[in-house]
Fold this sequence. Notes:
Layout: E1 2-4, E2 12-16, E3 29-31, E4 36-40, E5 45-49, E6 52-56, E7 62-66, H1 71-82, H2 93-96, E8 99-101, H3 102-106, H4 112-124, E9 130-133, H5 155-164, E10 168-169
Parallel strand pairs: 8-9, 9-10
Antiparallel strand pairs: 1-6, 2-5, 3-4, 4-7, 5-6
Amino acid sequence: MVIKCPILGAKSFSRDLLGDNRGNQAVPLLISNKGRYVWSEEPIAYTFKEGQLSVTSQHGKIVNGQIGTSLKSAYKGVSEKFFKTDGILPDELLFTQPQYNTWIELMYDQNEQDILNYAQAILDQGYPPGVLMIDDNWQENYGVWEFSARRFKNPKAMMKKLHLLPKVQLLRESLLCEV
Length: 179
């Protein structure tokens, strides 16, 4: 697919989200300040060159179109079309209490013992009660909603220990896997 578009300040620009997800911060959605969008359920590769956008995907269908005439209209339109909300708000604790995220402390090294140590350190330092989020890399592979057996010897026991800690709230419904 090729779409004509002005790209200011650069003669060409390419990105392949299948091979380079930019440190896990990529989404197969492009939107423009003219209301145009390109979306795919799967990773895309795209190139801006000589006023044209070329988009390919090895696995998914590419959808493009226009919703309104602005970045705002495109964003709102694709949000409604592809990311429609069910209208149910997340747990109130996520809005009323601090959120402690294991990524800040552990990044790619999410593991049972260090998560328990992090939760205890939150309490030991006197931080206010909050929600502890176990971030990315707790699973072995993306899309497999099970704790990594290499990094988590007994996830059920870990969750039980975390629930017993005072001041630390874990939202059971936020977990996408059975523990």
